Amino acid sequence: MNIEWLCALLGAILIADIIGWWVVPRRLPGLRVGIGICLYTGYSASILLSGYSPLQPVRDADSGSWQLTASLLMIAWWFLSARMLTQLLGAILISRTEGGGRLIREVLGALIFLVATVAAAAYVLELPVKGLLATSGALAIIVGLALQSTLSDVFSGIVLNATRPYQVGDWIQIDGMEGRVTDIDWRATLLLTSQGSTVVIPNSVAAKTKIQNMSRPEDQHGVTISLHLPLRFRPERIQDILEQALLGYSALLPAPAPKVILKGITEGLLEYEVIGFVGTPAEKITARNRLYDITYRHLRASGIDIADATEIPAPKITRFVLDDVRIFASFTTEDKDRLAMNLQSSHLAAGDFVLKADEISEQLLVIGSGVVSVQLRSGNNWVEVARMGPGEVLGEEGVMDNKPNGAQFIALSVVKVLQLHRDEVRQCMGERSQLRTSLTRLQMVRHQHARSILLQKAPTAMPGGFLKWLRLH
Prior knowledge:
Radius of gyration: 36 Å
């Protein structure tokens, strides 16, 4: 094959390769690589069968223009080889590393193309590579000193990709900044924060600082809140109340078990840390907010006012509980004071029935303190569908319609129950239509929830409780 035909054939294959590279969609990487391998094989076979070699310069051309063209096509072979090797290494890294190791692929690709450039200069153009390498080495030192910070970021990025303390999609905290990793490039790690902004953290900073990865392990993510209370409150009592609050939040994972830690004394205050675990990072903000709310409610219901750090007198505790009962939101202060005087209270031990299934309650029951499990019958078993705490009500079916209760309510801890007789409730409903509306809505949502739960094969506890629904209406 003369050099004219070889140049024409190689040129046609090269044009076909360029067209295929641009036409085939990026979402089909397998097809792109397959076409590239076929064209590269044809390109290499054409060179070998013609008697020429990319390891030797082209010297037997009839004219200088054909010799230059053939030399350029031989140089193109080196770059095609570099591209093919880069693609194969990229495919291996994608299959063996989670997330694809993009930065490592790019660095290896740059090194491979650098080697191809030197090889093409040495074999095809017969340039003095030793002198070129010496010159480029001196130049590399100068450039390296000028770009020391950038090179530090690049090599730190390589280390981070190799050790993989985090990957794209993980929720992490670096250098005091918390967010989801959206990209790891040559220079920096990009985080998308919960406020919707993007934070750029240089890889050199990430490699030197402490990294907290909240996405590992994948099935449990810690949620922590801190509370500071005066020394006047006995730590054992506070811990019991906070543990009771954790018991009342069914969205927390049972294992690892939630816990309360007394961390120390700071400026005359005892610092308590409440820790629980949820299944996904997306639940953490909701869980943290919910923990603050539920601990506040349990502390107030137990006679501890966080607002002014004082002990609440026993007569006022009931009044504070009524402030948290949303169905009484339309009542005036005087109405609530009068209602508190008519309430009867009783205490139940853990395991006692607060209200049995199929029982017609003559009282509207308000949970004064403690945690109550709400259970529905599913076949021959009882399944928990929610947990209730201070300020939540039950027994409305019997009070409003003289109907038996559909669920059973069991105390999970020592529970204080406030009781208001049905006659008092009906009198209040006659005076205030908002109370009837709220109780009707409560009945409706509980009936709907019961039906949906019984249709499920694996019922799970409702994390927000019934009071959460009332707050939205």
